[in-house]
Amino acid sequence: MNLNHINLIVKDVDKAVNLFAQHLGFHLIVNRNSKMAVMESNHNFALVIWGQVLNHKENTPEYPENFHIGFYQQNEEAVWEIYEKLKTEADLKFESEPKNIRNTFGFYFFFENMMIEISVDPFKDDVA
C-alpha cells in the first residue's frame, strides 16, 4: 500500500506552493484561486494545500504539539544545501542549524505554525 496524499491546512496557499515547489521538490498540478492547490512529488505522492479560508476561518491554523512532516535527503550535504536555500525565505522560523538529531542529521523549521523536518534517511545503508 502506498500513501496517496496528505492534506495540509495553511493560511497562505500561494506561499506554501512556493515553498514546496522551490525548495522541497514538488510540482504544482493545480492551484484553485489560491484557496486550494494540489502538488506532486517525484515519488507519486500528492500534497493537498488547503487554504484556511475554505474552513471559513481567517486565522493561521494550529497543529497539535509535535505534529510535523519530514523529508529525507541522501546525505548531510543535501541537508545543508536545502537549509542554505531556505534561510533566504522570509517568514520561516528555524529551531537551529542542521545538526545531529536522534539517529540522523537534520533540522526543523516552521512555515506558519507547521513544523517541517529535513533530515538524512537513517534507515539507508549508504547514509553519509
Automatic annotation (TrEMBL):
It comes from the Bacteria. Residues 3-112 form the Glyoxalase/fosfomycin resistance/dioxygenase domain. InterPro entries: Fosfomycin_Res_Enzymes, Glyas_Bleomycin-R_OHBP_Dase, Glyas_Fos-R_dOase_dom. This is VOC family protein.
